[in-house]
Amino acid sequence: MTAPVVTRFAPSPTGFLHIGGARTALFNWLYARKLGGKMLLRIEDTDRERSTKEAIAAILDGLKWLELDWDGEVIYQFSRAARHREVAEQLLASGKAYRCYATPDELDDMRKKARAEGRTRLYNGLWRDRDPSEAPLGVPPAIRLKAPLTGETVIEDQVQGRVVWQNETLDDLILLRADGNPTYMLAVVVDDHDMGVTHVIRGDDHLINAARQKQIYDALGWDIPNMSHIPLIHGPDGSKLSKRHGALGVEAYRALGYLPAALRNYLVRLGWSHGDQEIFSTDEMIAAFDLSGIGRSAARFDFAKLENLNGHYIRHADDQSLVTMFEGVLDYVPNGSDLKAKLNDTTRAQLLQAMPSLKERAKTLIELIDGSYFIFADRPLEIEPKAAAVLTDENRTLIARLRAALEAVDPWTSETTEAAMRAFTEANNLKLGAVAQPLRAALTGRTTSPGIFDVLSVLGKQECLARLADQAPS
């Protein structure tokens, strides 16, 4: 019977959850969910100077917002340091590791000499076979792995294929520093083993780490997990992803008005494909995901594609859920608190009523907020320059006459207001557009908005007549 699949997402809390980390988490989550396994979360906080509580909170919050749930408690790597030291001592006792008393100056000289001679193995094995009795007094030693000097270290990678390193090029890596702190390489191996991780899915910037970690697994006699090293995400121009390309924290995408489902869908298609399918529900993603669908070349981040996909998700979202998401993103946008203060039963009902029209025009929740401006605007409206140009003296007079015609409309609906406007334009030998645009400017302060009859219906009779009165000729 095969062991259940256990994946892990293991970020370092030295910054927020960036977009590449989010994709790695997603791939681990999908693989575990597809095969009925578990995805564990380990915070690799061994770098005490750079690890922060704020970054840990941002990582957890980002995963929750993306709806990527993990199994069990969060594991904090630093809390397991005693276990890591225990394994280092175990390797020392079995002759698979040794104490190294090399000074910083000696190590520096070794590195310089190796680089000058074009060698990648920077440590010359100074203490590898020396008698410990030669150890200098009062110098705390590091513990190094006694790595094989000849032969090959091989990883059978599910994405990269068979990857081979010549052992003569690999150093005797440090397992335990002179201050007693375990290194990242040792901690990762021990944690993955103790947590029962069966599959390691991570960025290909960790590929060289896989060679070093394989040597530790071999020295301990442990089975190495199944490895998959996924290509990194690049910018549209093929260069390393930077902030100008979209290398932002997940919380930034939330603030930019993207939907979790849309971002998940976009990320799954960055470096993984399933035929020509672009749109995936979460269930479809889980059913289709496999490691063989991950390509070897770097994926390119495309903001326009993400925006279009987000627009698709907004258009197909339930109106009430969009109202909820609209409220949820207000905490993250400029002037969001002002809008929040204006949310009440009336404005929520107006927002819900306007949503079918609003969501057709919006690619992000920010655009949705912007489009709903007319609902929350204070009187007298702030008139944008383009709208002010429409509100000529002649058009203000027209609006005053139209207001008189609309005053008689009862009940007030998009259908009855449309009928009244059409009757008004016919009686005055005008085209509908000649009336609709000044009316839009007077009711919204802008030249673009949802359909004018939707605007009339959403705002209601009393508010519409009041706004039109504000624009009466002086």
From TrEMBL:
Function according to Swiss-Prot or TrEMBL: Catalyzes the attachment of glutamate to tRNA(Glu) in a two-step reaction: glutamate is first activated by ATP to form Glu-AMP and then transferred to the acceptor end of tRNA(Glu).
Name listed for the protein in its UniProt record: Glutamate--tRNA ligase
Gene from which the chain derives: gltX
Keyword terms of this UniProt record: Aminoacyl-tRNA synthetase, ATP-binding, Cytoplasm, Ligase, Nucleotide-binding, Protein biosynthesis
Binding positions for ATP per the UniProt entry: K243
GO biological process, one term: glutamyl-tRNA aminoacylation
Species of origin: Bradyrhizobium lablabi
EC numbers on record: 6.1.1.17
NCBIfam families: gltX_bact
Motif ('KMSKS' region): 240-244
Gene3D superfamilies: 1.10.10.350, HUPs
Localization per record: Cytoplasm
Main location: cytoplasm
Keyword Kinase: no
Record family assignment: Belongs to the class-I aminoacyl-tRNA synthetase family. Glutamate--tRNA ligase type 1 subfamily.
Domain Glutamyl/glutaminyl-tRNA synthetase class Ib catalytic as annotated: residue spans: 5-307
